Task: inverse folding
């Protein structure tokens, strides 16, 4: 079986003009991903979770062994 390694990547955001643009692009992509995911899932909570009054996820029940 062949194993592949994925190198870790890290963005260096140091306050330079380039890092400001990079941070904006990363945040925009994250917002798009979240909105697009909600569109495809119907905005439902993940399996096993409910959304409480503060729109935070909480477990529906505790898993028993």
Result:
């Amino acid at each position: 079986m062949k194993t592949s390694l994925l190198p870790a990547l890290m963005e260096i955001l140091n306050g330079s003009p380039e890092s400001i643009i990079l941070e904006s692009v990363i945040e925009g992509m994250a917002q798009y991903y979240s909105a697009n995911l909600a569109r495809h899932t119907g905005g439902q909570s993940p399996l096993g979770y409910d959304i409480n009054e503060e729109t935070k996820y909480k477990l529906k029940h505790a898993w028993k062994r």
Q: What stands out?
A: Helices lie at 17-41. Residues 17-59 form one domain.
